[in-house]
Design goal:
505 residues; TIM Barrel; nine-stranded mixed sheet; 18 helices; 42% helix; binds 2-acetamido-2-deoxy-beta-D-glucopyranose; membrane; transmembrane helix; hydrolase
């Protein structure tokens, strides 16, 4: 009987144990922190796209380091954000290059002027120093670090991955149509560099390729396929805030793409604010020196930001993309208030929290240190998943709450059942312990379970009948000896007592 109860109890416990891990992630998943993408390294502290900046980002535990590639005149891929070297290097201070300045019309129709990387050899570029590209940021480490090639940065990431701290690379082809037009297409060389760095053989090294131009993504995808590695890279289509992306475009991209990288005001919509001093035709991601903020959030998001409570806020773009299986990685999260909506009060952690609530899957950040600080607050707040489940109901939350309720009920039943079985079991101890094998009698009674000691005391009639002998209750020596020397003597004594009482056979 007891055996049967125990096995039923065991089965119930195993079932509960199996149910628990399957139910809990459903809850936790609802608010999983987005991937941290170190945008150009750590440009809030170091000149962008330098080895030192990337190293620092890896130390802060980012998921991906992000870089842009442009081509040198002699066909090497270097990590620079702009087609021109003016903002991010000291090229303008080199009198010997003065006549290299060039003005051209880019394929998109925009005119650009400056020292184009494609008019310099790699050897020449190696002689330049990187500088902090944003003028109002700390310039202390300008003129300290060099421009890096793509293979060098890939090696840094691979070394980290090989040393057990996996970090992905997230590479953007810069001006791909421009590079094609001057006979220096980027895609094949970029894929060659990846293969040389080991991305063909190390399947565990995360790899994302991104571009504003879907054509470039398709060409890289084709290059990977040609090397027998179809689908090796996840493809992100970057979205410019001036172009509204249609459902048909998202449908078409979802056939081969992994996700979209929208400018963040496309995720949390902004309304213009006079305080923000944004000039009318400014690109929303422009770094205008006189700019104070990017605008105001819409009323629902602004209320959430004001209360620092990120209940149910929604983003139309996130919903449309995720409905098609596409992830959403908005850019760019920066520490300075001028790059945020006014409603965040220049608090980068509040801004990240709102975007997490909007359900984004990754964030491009200029300051990995701040992202790490924010993630720490998110982990500290993790136990509040119950709160977040209750505060934002939906089909998944309902399912999760149902499974947890079932679990709790089951555990309660199991507990009550266990207590009942234990009580019934203890009642039968007395009978059972008469048959306790004598070979266990070592002469030391202290290690026996209290139940056995009680049974011994009861059966030998040692004056303790009916008393509970706790573990610490010393037993009279005479009783111990009787019991220990020979439990069969108990039976013998009983027979004698029976005979003395006039019974007998
Ligand atoms: C820069 O490179 C482009 C493309 O190769 C070329 O057409 C142009 O003449 C070069 N300009 C200078 C100033 O070297
Ligand atoms: C990667 O590791 C190799 C071998 O230890 C080393 O020679 C190289 O300098 C490292 N590269 C970077 C970029 O850290
Ligand atoms: C992609 O490949 C096509 C066909 O080879 C080529 O015409 C086009 O210029 C390439 N586009 C880019 C952006 O590299």
């Amino acid at each position: 009987m007891l055996k049967h109860e125990c096995s039923t109890l065991l089965a119930a416990l195993i079932w509960a144990a199996c149910l628990t891990p399957s139910a809990l992630p459903a809850l936790a998943q609802e608010r999983e922190a987005p991937l941290i993408i170190a945008h150009r390294g750590s440009p809030c502290h170091f000149p962008e796209e330098t080895l030192e900046g990337y190293r620092r980002a890896i130390e802060y535990g980012v998921d991906y380091i992000e870089m842009d590639v442009v081509s040198t005149k002699d066909g090497h891929l270097i990590c620079r954000h702009d087609l021109t070297l003016d903002d991010s290097t000291d090229v303008a201070e080199h009198a010997e290059y003065a006549e290299r300045k060039w003005t051209t019309i880019l394929p998109g129709g925009r005119e650009q002027s400056g020292f184009f990387a494609c008019n310099f050899t790699l050897a020449e570029i190696r002689g330049l120093f990187a500088k902090q590209a944003i003028p109002f940021r700390n310039q202390a480490s300008s003129h300290s670090f060099r421009v890096q090639t793509l293979p060098e940065v890939l090696q840094l990431a691979m070394n980290s991955t090989g040393a057990g701290r996996p970090v992905g690379v997230y590479i953007e082809t810069k001006g791909p149509a421009f590079h094609s037009s001057i006979g220096l297409p980027l895609e094949a060389r970029l894929v060659d560099a990846l293969m040389a760095a080991g991305y063909g053989s190390v399947a565990a090294a995360p790899l994302i390729l991104q571009s504003f131009e879907p054509q470039s993504l398709q060409n890289m995808s084709r290059e990977l396929e040609a090397r027998g590695l179809p689908g090796r890279a996840n493809l992100i289509w970057l979205l410019d805030c001036t172009a509204d992306v249609s459902d048909a475009q998202l449908d078409a991209f979802a056939k081969y793409g992994y996700g979209v990288g929208p400018e963040k005001s496309m995720v949390a919509r902004l309304v213009p604010a006079p305080e923000c001093a944004r000039s009318e035709g400014d690109a929303c991601s422009a770094v205008a020196p006189e700019q104070a903020c990017t605008g105001r959030l819409t009323p629902a998001a602004a209320a959430a930001a004001a209360a620092r409570s990120w209940g149910i806020v929604q983003s139309e773009l996130v919903e449309r993309a995720q409905a098609r299986g596409l992830v959403v990685h908005p850019y760019t999260f920066r520490n300075e208030g001028r790059f945020m909506a006014l409603d965040f009060d220049a608090d980068p952690l509040a801004e990240l929290s709102l975007f997490r609530a909007l359900g984004v899957d990754g964030v491009f950040v200029d300051c990995p240190a701040t992202a790490a600080e924010w993630l720490a607050t998110q982990h500290a707040a993790t136990p509040s998943w119950i709160g977040s489940v209750i505060s934002s109901p939906g089909p998944r939350q309902a399912a999760a709450i149902a499974s947890v309720s079932v679990l709790a009920t089951l555990l309660a039943i199991t507990l009550v059942w266990g207590v009942v079985i234990l009580v019934r079991h203890r009642r039968r101890q007395r009978v059972k312990y008469q048959f306790f094998p004598s070979m266990f009698n070592t002469g030391d009674l202290t290690w026996y379970p209290p139940d056995y000691r009680r049974a011994v005391v009861d059966e030998t009639g040692g004056g303790s009948r009916g008393e509970e002998c706790g573990e610490d209750t010393p037993l009279p020596t005479s009783i111990m000896m009787t019991a220990i020397d020979s439990p069969p003597r108990i039976a013998e004594q009983e027979r004698r007592a029976d005979r003395a009482n006039g019974g007998g056979t």
